[in-house]
């Protein structure tokens, strides 16, 4: 039990992404997205835990030709497209105050560069938002959650091309106008820092087309920063009472020892992670990145007025995903552990998930305090959860006590951060209903309070079933975090 109640109106809920949830990839006039091209690779055949990149034009053409017989899990999702009413009713039963979802850009603009939107795509999200409104659930909508229209990759090499700024802003303005009476919480780019790890997923860049990968990635990121700031401006103009935020894959990093070399290595990792929010929350490039660009021969091309746009149109709040922490060492030969796209040295003080992600609830309190100290804007934890193998018992029950333990420990630390004085808007547990994993395209890596009967190969009835954690989370929300 927490000693302090969470603030009145705290936004409890769950989080998802269109490409992991909706399915119906070729229905309703939708165009192909970058994640529609990512195949399932069995665990034993993977070179690491992140198999989602498409690196070359040749590979993309091969995947495009492979329409029959290939296992592309993100194309099928869990069929939310046809079952959204059933799923939203379950979220309402848990008492969700908010539901984080993304709009699939190619559902609205199938190619990404058209002038006229696809009415069928717009109508689908109208129906989803109306269903949420019926239950008093506030939508929290991500504009770009790894759903770049594939056409923009093929024709422009994604965000490397500045023309994508205008395409994105046109898309953002279209949905702001359409849903201005239905959505008041928005995010621009999901985990914007992932471009540095996966140029294809984060920025739609095929690396075989560029001479210098880092140069191309940071130039693409600059275009995304400008697009984000212009989307913030448009949102404030079109929906004056809305709030729009940025979103970071937060990687809190500890020094391995008190050796100053380790402390400097940890600082460097932390700065590289917070660079993205520095630009979007503070409105300018931090000096440490200017040094990094200089030392790595990276030259950011800025158009006249870019710096003013970044400075004048900063976000209203900072949202982030938090799954684990990292450890840094000044010794380059140290073995690294993988997790949520990033890697670091194994922390001997922490346990790990079935996928090797290190579990660190206190790290959440630490990161909440650090972010609030640095930025002094409201924070929103929009992803946090445990990917695990779930077993359906003979009587049909799913006893996921390990998930309850994980979430309870993190919510307790969130309550401590609130007592520390941190302004937190809300908490949306990742994958509130089982969905396709972003990094591995597995269905067997489950996060949800709701079990979906489907395996890694798409077999199953898609029946929804409540896990033990369903009633637990319902009680957490009902008591506003008092009963954990």
Automatic annotation (TrEMBL):
<dbReference type="GO" id="GO:0016052">
    <property type="term" value="P:carbohydrate catabolic process"/>
</dbReference>
<dbReference type="InterPro" id="IPR017853">
    <property type="entry name" value="GH"/>
</dbReference>
<keyword id="KW-0378">Hydrolase</keyword>
<comment type="similarity">
    <text>Belongs to the glycosyl hydrolase 1 family.</text>
</comment>
<dbReference type="InterPro" id="IPR033132">
    <property type="entry name" value="GH_1_N_CS"/>
</dbReference>
<dbReference type="GO" id="GO:0005829">
    <property type="term" value="C:cytosol"/>
</dbReference>
<dbReference type="InterPro" id="IPR001360">
    <property type="entry name" value="Glyco_hydro_1"/>
</dbReference>
<dbReference type="InterPro" id="IPR018120">
    <property type="entry name" value="Glyco_hydro_1_AS"/>
</dbReference>
<feature type="active site" description="Nucleophile">
    <location>
        <position position="383"/>
    </location>
</feature>
<dbReference type="Pfam" id="PF00232">
    <property type="entry name" value="Glyco_hydro_1"/>
</dbReference>
<dbReference type="GO" id="GO:0008706">
    <property type="term" value="F:6-phospho-beta-glucosidase activity"/>
</dbReference>
<protein>
    <submittedName>
        <fullName>6-phospho-beta-glucosidase</fullName>
        <ecNumber>3.2.1.86</ecNumber>
    </submittedName>
</protein>
<keyword id="KW-0326">Glycosidase</keyword>
């Amino acid at each position: 039990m927490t000693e302090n109640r969470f603030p009145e109106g705290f936004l409890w809920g769950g989080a998802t992404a269109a490409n992991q949830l909706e399915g119906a990839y070729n229905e309703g006039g939708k165009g192909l997205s970058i994640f529609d091209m990512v195949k399932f690779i069995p665990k034993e055949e993977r070179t690491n835990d992140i198999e989602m990149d498409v690196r070359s034009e040749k590979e993309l053409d091969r995947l495009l030709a492979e329409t029959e017989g290939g296992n592309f899990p993100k194309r099928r999702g869990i069929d939310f497209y046809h079952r959204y009413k059933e799923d939203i009713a379950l979220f309402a039963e848990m008492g969700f105050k908010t539901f984080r979802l993304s709009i699939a850009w190619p559902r609205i603009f199938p190619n990404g560069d058209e002038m006229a939107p696809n009415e069928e795509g717009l109508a689908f999200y109208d129906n989803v938002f109306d269903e949420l409104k019926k239950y008093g659930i506030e939508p929290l909508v991500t504009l770009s959650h790894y759903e770049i229209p594939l056409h923009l990759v093929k024709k422009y090499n994604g965000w490397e091309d500045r023309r994508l700024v205008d395409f994105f802003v046109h898309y953002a303005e279209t949905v702001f106008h359409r849903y201005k009476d239905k959505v008041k919480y928005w995010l621009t780019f999901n985990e914007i820092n992932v471009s540095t790890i996966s140029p294809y997923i984060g920025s739609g860049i095929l690396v075989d087309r560029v001479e210098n990968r880092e140069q191309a990635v940071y130039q693409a990121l600059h275009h995304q920063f400008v697009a984000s700031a212009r989307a913030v401006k448009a949102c404030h103009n079109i929906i004056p009472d809305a709030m729009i935020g940025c979103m970071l894959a937060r990687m809190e990093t500890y020094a391995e020892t008190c050796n100053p070399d380790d402390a400097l290595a940890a600082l460097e990792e932390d700065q590289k992670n917070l660079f993205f929010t520095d630009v979007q929350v503070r409105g300018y490039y931090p000096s440490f990145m200017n040094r990094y660009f200089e030392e790595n021969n990276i030259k950011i091309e800025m158009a006249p007025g870019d710096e003013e746009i970044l400075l004048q149109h900063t976000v209203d709040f900072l949202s982030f995903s938090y799954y684990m922490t990292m450890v840094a060492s000044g010794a380059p030969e140290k073995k690294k552990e993988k997790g949520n796209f990033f890697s670091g040295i194994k922390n001997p003080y922490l346990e790990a998930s079935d996928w090797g992600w290190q579990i660190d609830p206190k790290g959440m309190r630490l990161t909440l305090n650090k972010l609030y100290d640095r930025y002094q804007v409201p924070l929103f934890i929009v992803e946090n959860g445990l990917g695990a193998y779930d077993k359906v018992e003979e009587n049909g029950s799913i006893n996921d006590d390990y998930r309850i333990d994980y979430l309870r420990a993190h919510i307790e630390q969130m309550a401590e951060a609130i007592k520390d004085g941190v302004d937190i808007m809300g908490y949306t547990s990742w994958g509130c209903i089982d969905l396709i994993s972003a990094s591995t395209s597995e269905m067997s890596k489950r996060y949800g309070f709701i079990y979906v009967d489907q395996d890694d190969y798409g077999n199953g009835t898609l029946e929804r079933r409540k896990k033990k954690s369903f009633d637990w989370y319902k009680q957490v929300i009902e008591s506003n975090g008092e009963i954990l």
